[in-house]
Specification:
heterodimer; A: mainly alpha; 3-stranded antiparallel beta sheet; B: 76 residues; mainly alpha; F1FO ATP Synthase; 2 helices
């Protein structure tokens, strides 16, 4: 049996060491039957599929894109080239779907807790919600000095939503893409090669830039509202060097202003993208035999544990910087 | 030749990113320990700030590692 064949099977159940060990045991000698059964259950149309590792990586980094084709019809892109040709007016269905589902999940959970809130001994869910709200409250009180009732809910939404989106990184890397492939092939009659699915919305720069530009719009709005249009323009043009250094001031402050949303978006995107990339590379190791596979399992567990820190930290940093930027927008310079 | 250049580019990205992050986090951790030794009662506050700044420092080399991995395994 070639290693690529096993590769594909192993990836379907990339749970880590246990799965790898079991797979290697199953596939060791009389395994062709098992593989046939396994693959025929999951993807009947591509039972003897082999893919190279760079194809695997590219497949995992491709979004499911909906847009207008060259011939004018609307539909899903079948490969990366078609997705790129759709240009600006295309939508990444997986990013939108996952982020909206997670947003609704968040809203549903906290609404449910809020409706059943009680002053006596709180339930587990209420304790959990209060703990998060206390944490956000402390953060906002620590960094925000103005008067605005919108900042704390905004910080709360950003933190929980980004955390949930990042959390999708900890799902086994092939779980949702293979489920999507199965659904697309069996229910919609799609070609299994053209069913892409990126589970982590924050590995898509569109999502992170969308959030960062949302925050940026609020920063501009509150800058103008608090300082007046003149005050805001004055802050941009007159600041470090007085009115005779105006061109230099505009350049300096303009770069500082534009850098805010871009660094906010790229930091989150870059961290999640790199983390996802490393998970993909670890998943490739499962196809390389028992020893490398077990080592890959250990690596996956280690990286997943470290990643719990990263995803929380990145959500927290996005939230903290949002609060700090809004605080700067509220502060008047004299 | 192009392949070799891609590998060199990837290794440079990872190496230089790691270098900068190592210096940055080294200084950061050292100062954190200094501060914690001087005023142990501030440790919780310092730890929070430490993790925030560590996240900021850590982000750039992490991005470099991700892009380098992409270049090494998907492009090259």
């Amino acid at each position: 049996m070639d290693s690529n064949h096993r590769d594909v099977c192993n990836r379907i159940c990339s749970f880590g060491v246990v799965a790898t060990a079991i797979d290697d045991w199953i596939y060791s000698d009389t395994a062709d039957f098992v593989i046939w059964k396994f693959e025929s259950g999951l993807k009947p149309k591509m039972a003897s599929e082999t893919i190279t590792s760079s194809e695997y990586i590219r497949h995992h980094l491709q979004n499911l894109t909906f847009g207008q084709h060259h011939d004018g019809s609307w539909g899903l892109a079948h490969n990366a080239q078609e997705a790129a040709d759709m240009g600006f007016w295309a939508i990444n269905v997986d990013t939108m779907g996952m982020s909206i589902v997670l947003g609704l999940l968040m809203a549903w959970f906290f609404r449910r807790v809020a409706k059943k809130v009680e002053a006596g001994v709180p339930s587990g869910a209420q304790n959990f919600a209060e703990w998060i709200i206390d944490f956000i409250n402390d953060s906002v009180r620590g960094s925000f000095s103005g008067q605005n009732n919108m900042v704390a809910p905004l910080a709360f939404t950003i933190f929980i939503w980004i955390f949930l989106m990042n959390l999708m990184d900890l799902l086994p890397i092939d779980l949702v893409p293979e489920a999507a492939k199965w659904t697309g092939t069996n229910m919609f009659g799609m070609d299994p090669h053209s069913v892409f699915f990126k589970v982590v919305p924050t590995t898509d720069p569109n999502a992170t830039f969308g959030m960062a530009f949302g925050v940026f719009a609020l920063v501009l709005y509150y800058s103008v509202k608090m300082k007046g249009l003149g005050g805001f323009i004055g802050e941009l043009t007159l600041q470090p060097f007085g009115k005779w250094g105006m061109p230099f001031n505009i350049f300096l402050e303009g770069v500082g202003l534009i850098a805010k949303p871009i660094s906010l978006a790229l930091r989150l995107f870059g961290n999640m993208y790199a983390g996802e990339m490393i998970f993909i590379l670890i998943a490739i190791m499962y196809g390389a035999g028992l020893i490398l596979g077990s080592f890959g399992g250990l690596l996956q567990i280690g990286w997943a544990i470290f990643h719990i820190l990263i995803i929380t930290l990145q959500a927290f940093i996005f939230m903290t910087l949002t609060i700090v930027y809004l605080d700067m927008a509220h502060q008047e310079h004299h | 030749m192009e392949q070799a250049l891609l590998y060199i580019a990837g290794s440079l990205m990872m190496g230089l990113g790691a270098l900068g992050a190592a210096v940055g986090i080294g200084i950061l951790g050292g100062r954190f320990l200094e501060g914690a030794a001087r005023q142990p009662e501030l440790i919780p506050m310092l730890r929070t700030q430490f993790f925030i700044v560590m996240g900021l420092v850590d982000a750039v080399p992490m991005i470099a590692v991700g892009l380098a991995m992409y270049i090494l395994f998907a492009v090259a």
